[in-house]
Amino acid sequence: MIFNFTIVTAQNNMQTCWFFEWARGQYKTLRSREGRTKSLQNAFYRKYPKNQMFTKVELAKFLNAYQEIWEGKRLVIGPHIVVRGNEKNYAQFIANNLPDNTKKINNVYFEDAIAKCILIKNADKRYGKKPDSIGEMKQVVVPYALSLISIITENKLDLYKIWKNQQVSQQLSYFIYDLMKQVNQFILDTYAGQHYIEKAKREECWELVKNHLWNFNISEIKSDLTACNKYFILLLELVCDCFKNFGNIIDPVQNFVYCVTEAGKSLEDIEEELGFPRGWTKIGGEAVI
């Protein structure tokens, strides 16, 4: 079992845990151990809410639904794989969607995974339940729509923002809802009178959905697409700070200025340090700097 503590948000001033159950029954076992009385059990649920527990099968669903993975010219991970069911989807996840280096399975990995979990839970809720649902293809439309979001945004959705806020922004939620309605209708129109779920398990169906011209305004979720820009700015700031602090070591011009102004060295001293005779840079009585 792995825990990931949430960040305190405006909606919840108490730090809670996301509980990853990699072996069946771990959540119940911990609850039995820590919740021996009613009050302790309530404390357990406050710390480990039921809706923040997910299994390895659900993890596979969150990650496989979010982004395509190609092996050469072969599509090995996509939303159509998720539609095939938990067992087949999990097998593909193990074979094709685990990091090649276990060191990459760290806090950032799980924070991104939880952000994708929050995304899919939001989409699932927005799709709705009968009789007020968008349609009868939730298990198809939800993963299809999330994969489309990744493609539409060029994989620039700010997952850290979702993790930090522990929720999807209102504008992104509306964007996903509208996209799901379009996807639902598109599949109905494309496969009229056929078995929609079976069709959606095929890569051909996903290719049709992926290449369709959808009606959306990307500017509506502009504030949810700042991840790359934000990290690039942070990188530039880091480079700038490094140059300020260590520039006199890595930059010859700064090193010369530092030696002359800060260390109080003369030009002859610097010549000598570099292995030249003192006065070596003087030509015609003038120092060349």
Give a topology summary.
Elements: E1 2-5, E2 17-21, H1 26-34, H2 38-47, E3 53-55, H3 56-66, E4 69-71, E5 74-77, H4 79-83, H5 86-96, H6 107-127, H7 138-152, H8 159-165, H9 170-190, H10 196-200, H11 203-211, H12 227-250, H13 252-261, H14 267-273, E6 282-283, E7 286-287
Parallel strand pairs: 2-3
Antiparallel strand pairs: 1-2, 4-5, 6-7
C-alpha Rg (nearest Å): 28 Å
Number of strands: 7
Task: Supply the number of structural domains.
Answer: 2
Unreliable runs: none
Briefly note the structural class of the backbone: mainly alpha
Overall description:
It is a single chain. The protein has 289 residues and is mainly alpha-helical. It folds into 2 domains: 59-230, no CATH class; 251-287, no CATH class. Helix content is 57%, strand content 8%. It is built from 14 helices and 7 strands. The protein has helices at 26-34, 38-47, 56-66, 79-83, 86-96, 107-127, 138-152, 159-165, 170-190, 196-200, 203-211, 227-250, 252-261, 267-273, and strands at residues 2-5, 17-21, 53-55, 69-71, 74-77, 282-283, 286-287. The strands form 3 sheets. The chain has a 3-stranded mixed beta sheet with strand order 1-2-3. β6 and β7 (286-287) form a beta hairpin. α6 packs across α7 (138-152) and α12 (227-250) crosses α13 (252-261).
